[in-house]
Amino acid sequence: MINQIENISTTDSELLLKGKKLPVMEEFYSIQGEGYNTGKAAYFIRVGGCDVGCHWCDVKESWNPNLHPLVDVDAVIRNVKAQPANAIVITGGEPLLYNLNYLTDELAKQQVDIFLETSGAHPLTGSWHWICLSPKKNLPPLPEVYNRADELKVIVYNKHDIEWAEEHAAKVNANCKLYLQPEWSNREKVLPMIIDYVMNHPHWNISLQTHKYMQIP
User: Which of 51, 54, 169, 191 is in the most buried spot, having the most CB atoms within 10 Å?
Assistant: First the structure.
């Protein structure tokens, strides 16, 4: 994906490879709406670029990295400092398309918790307090990400997705939290099925996109 970023200088290309610049789609301070950390105030950094391409993705505008400016990571850190957040969420797109070592090293100096949301399809970079693995069918996660995941969050669009979720649950570590989350546009249809499944398989939990119910970013 780095090679697909067009019309950048040699200097910017080198900074991108070092993780000192990233194609940032947006930054905002809000409430984590889903998964284990639901309800936490967090500063979100959404990185542009994704090669997974889920048909139900609700942030398709993040897919093309050329639509988003290359931003100095140091500027992002200054934005983080300006907010009272003690948790930072790196999301996408697919953040692991890029070298995230510099970003997380600098965030660690701010003594904040650093969370990653990823499909796990690319090598893990960066240092993390919490890794949410949300596997996608187009590109499976790498073994190293299964092993490091603190949370497995599977988006459920139909009945088969629950069977598929169990296949991934068998690959994560024993301490990984397990979540089934209804795909937003199909939630009324699949949520009763998820509720019934979790009641009969209590090693799973239900995740809802509460930020959408609250109508916040």
Answer: 54
